[in-house]
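Example 3.
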Amino acid sequence: MNPAVRRSLRFVPLLLLPLVPLVDHNNSHIDFLANAGAFILLALGLNIVVGFAGLLDLGYAAFFAIGSYSYAMLASQQFGIHVPFWVMLFAASGIAAIFGILLGAPTLRLRGDYLAIVTLGFGEIVPQTFLNLSQYTNGPNGISSLDSPSLFGHRFGFSATPYFYVMLGLIVIGVLLASNLQNSRLGRAWMAIREDELAARHMGINTTAAKLSAFALGASFSGLAGVAYAAKLDLVSPDQFQFNVSVLVLSMLVLGGMGNIPGVIVGSFALSFINSFLLPQSTNLVHSIGLTWIDFTDYRFMLYGVILVAMMLFRPEGLIPSRQRRAELREALTDPGISAQEQTEYEGAAR
Amino acid sequence: MRLGSALARLSAAGLIAALLAACSPSSTTTQSTSTSSAAPVAAAAGNVIKIGVELPLSGGDASNGIPTRNGVILAVEESNKTAIPGGFSYAVDDLDDAVQGKHDPALGAQNTKTFISDAAVLAMVGPFNSNVAKAEIPLTNDAQLTQISPSNTSNGLTQGDDGRKLRTSHPELNSFFRVCTTDDHQGAADAAFAKKLGFKAVFIVDDNETYGKGLADVFEAQFKKGGGTVLGHEHLNAGQTDFKALLTKAQNLRPDVVFFGGTTVSGGGLLRKQMGDSALKAVAYVGGDGISDDTFLKTAGTMANGSYYTVAAPETSKLASAKTFVANYKKRFGVDVGPYSANAYTAAMIEIAAINKAITVAGNKMPARVDVTKGVAATKGFVSPIGTVGFDANGDTTAPILSLYKISGGKAVFVDQVNLKT
Amino acid sequence: MDVFYQQLINGLSLGGIYALIALGYTMVYGIIELINFAHGDVYTLGTFFSLAILTGLGVSGEVHGLALVGVVLVTMLAAMLLCGITGVLIERLAYRRLRNAPRLAPLITAIGMSFILENVMQLWKGPSPISFPAVIPNPSFQAGGVEIAAKQILVIVLAIVMMVALQLFIRNTKMGKAMRATAQDRDAAQLMGININTTIAMTFLIGSALAGAAGFVSGVYYGTTWFFNGFEAGLKAFTAAVLGGIGNVAGAMLGGFLIGLVEAFATQYIPQGAQWTNVVVFSVLVLVLVFRPSGLLGEAVPEKV
């Protein structure tokens, strides 16, 4: 087949995704996809911090909380402020980015796991603070009845479908942004820092600026995700942003293949699928193939742990690792069967 | 890395997964005495009616959700042994709203949508946590699917402006009910009892969760109103096991009673036990129905004596049906009941009774959800292990009686009861 | 002023438990640079094992006299042994293969192991908290307006004793030397003839045994246990290890006591302080690390170019 045709066929699934809600009328499936979409955004953001810049962040849920609470405080009855949803998307990603810089600043001199524990600390401090300042945040009850977004006068309501499209759009934007960042000077600075920070600094890279940018940009993604997620759920509460969420997003990255955007997306989706679909429905799936005496209810937690361990033991570099791609490209360079144009393209990408 | 292929891979993955999701069956049948064949989405399989159970069932929250779910299982199994009109049988369909061990409102909402799109589900029991309920009530209201919570006590779920806002689609027909009393009733009763028992200065502790903090806040306000002094009001951290520092702070203020808002598991039991190692040994302890279970007796040990708690049921709830329930539960599951098992059992029984009635009215055919909801809303004088249950227009229980118990000699002794006029 | 000293005792005994758990964390991290998230759950497992042994011995309340010594020794040592074996098994099954994998892979595996252990314990003893026999009589002593319970003394003393014993072991035994060598430079150690696999396994054995001891002590001290206990305690203990300087045994103990003290004083002196203890602890951590990036007692390792 003509390689140009083959390459353009890859875009077909992208065009088909928006049709899913028209085909599948079960709103809980669309609901799941929209929720999974939010987590894909989170994973893309964390990928910038951990995957690109190599900064181990164990408290990413803090930024998710900041994004969501920004929406709850600025677009609801809580303080009587009603910033429109579409404006909040920008505003919250900005607010989150600022906090990214604030929380990243103390970590600049720390190496490896010390940085990890400080980020973990922030991951504990932020939701606890939201919980404790109950006169502003309603404490454990959280803030509900948030403003419903509307597009051209059409309000969003309960159906997950409009949120599905919003998430899809945000993911496309996110992928474009992350991809461009990866191939930019900043992206290469991150790669240098990740590989050897001292050498990078001596080559003239402003490591402080690069690291802070990584935190800020990574956090801005979670600002976006936070706003969309809060609007969809119509609720924010502190116990949605605990350590387990930070661990979940990190696991998505590692499972999918850190630093590699398609890998991150696949890993994120896989874990969302496992966590909120496969495991809860595990008993039912097994029943539907006739093994009606098996009940997984009491084993869900263990199954999840086994899946994590198994995936790491058999493929610790992730489902779609980035090194492999580079190796592929290197093979292609020595293969005489490719055209000169493709050769140039490959060389450009491998650099 | 090429952008095009990134997007392409993304969409391919998404499409495959979406197809997988669409093809998998959407509801579970567990612990049922009758099996159901693989139900295609949105079609009721044969004559099985499912009671959806939406609770946190894994990880840390499992200690709340599992004993509660078991109450529903017991109710369904007992009902299946009786004659059900139309030849139907009941099954429990439980979905877990805990993500990595913590209840998650988003997963709760998703699970609710799963129940809504399964025509065999005619009623729901759950959720456990008030913040999950906030995400779910608008959905069940929209679908007119009966939802009874065994444990949501937050007033804002049904009353006032907050309650009205949640009933967006059908403000005229409430579909969310609860069999537990609300914070304002229990908190007020607790304050009144504390005053009656002669306590003047209280130190309040709560677990900073929706139930515990809600209860403690009402108690504080009412106790002050009744002329008492509140020496301090502190909140615990989740998972805290060491309260010595807090108790040292408290004993310095010399309270004559300590009030706890929360459950045994969230600190109520251990706090009481550790009081025994402090200068507060002889000080009394008052709590709500969260510490009314046997686990409290076990956790607090000898210090359980001298504790008071309230339950939203008349004293005669130590009546035959309650004793029978506790015994049957122990026999079926091998462990003691949890603090909300009886509530969940009652909730399921109310739903089953309403469904049975609706089946008959529909001519022994599968009834419509709205008819079940109307039937539940009309519940009055339903006899259960937690007393006589009925619902008011908001879906709150009309049980006006709150009983106070004191633990002495390792046993709960009835002390007093109050009749709140609603 | 009495309140201050009382809170001091409270903080030290709380910190003692953290210190015991932190010792194991720091040992494992020092040698293979792995944050062993399953360590907190091995600690809880220690409590569960102790409970099983005590039930087997027929102990349900306090024990007195010579029998007390016997019961404590048997239970604690057995729990330590069982936990040590568990730790070695976990390392063998889950972590060994990933020694050369990207750094985050063993981290995720550790998290997975943690979930597995938690679920096993949930299945073993149920999802609700269970009570633990008192075992040791708990008379209180008055010392100048301050009340100290016997169990509080036990916890503090045990933490110090374990730290000293561990320090002696690492400094003076051949295996200890092997551990230090492996921690410093794994490849060089191997070239010097040290069996890396055995050394690492030994590290896990000792670290997990310490967690088992902590589990026994915690059960006796609090009188209750729960399958999900280890999560929170493990997090605090890891913070303690980092605070003291990761890889440093005395630092782990210091970090543990420090965190306990911070919690106790925060509770007392901050208005409504009980809800802010975690925030304060982590803020202290951040401040310490900003001014001393390698922890309180950690060596400032110069970066070699």
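Residues 1-10, 17-45 of chain B have pLDDT under 50 and may be disordered. The first helix of chain B runs from residue 3 to 23.
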